[in-house]
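Batch queue: ligand-bound targets. Current item pairs a single chain with zinc ion. No template structures supplied; prediction is de novo from sequence plus SMILES. Inputs echoed for audit trail.
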Amino acid sequence: MTTPPRRGRGRPATFTTATRRVFLDAVAAGTPLGQATQLAGVSPTTPRRHARTDPAFAADLAAAKAAGREARLANVPHGESRYNNYGCRCTTCRTAATTARTNRRHTTNPDPQVVTLPAPAASSCPSSLLLAKAS
Ligand SMILES: [Zn+2]
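Prediction returned. Tokens below.
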């Protein structure tokens, strides 16, 4: 029985340069971090640990996250949602948000439900109120 020759001691590294490239490209394309780690085939905690110990990788990851944020924002159409959730203040978003807000403020309920409470009986007083009366 023969075993393949080992290159060195210890467990082989899973977060190699190629794996890092796959992960960083996925993040830069706007993929959520959990899915990016699945694409790269590493544990979800691995990139975070490497970013903590490797400043160069931390800088690359920050740049990839910023690019991913921009990529995700590019897919969101201009409107009230983008105004509220992403802080877009372009004319289209501002107008849509103002219109929606105005419509909500001026909408009145055509059939309000009025709840009539039964009149309290003279002797039915909760015990907490009796204690308040006694003091
Ligand atoms: Zn906008």
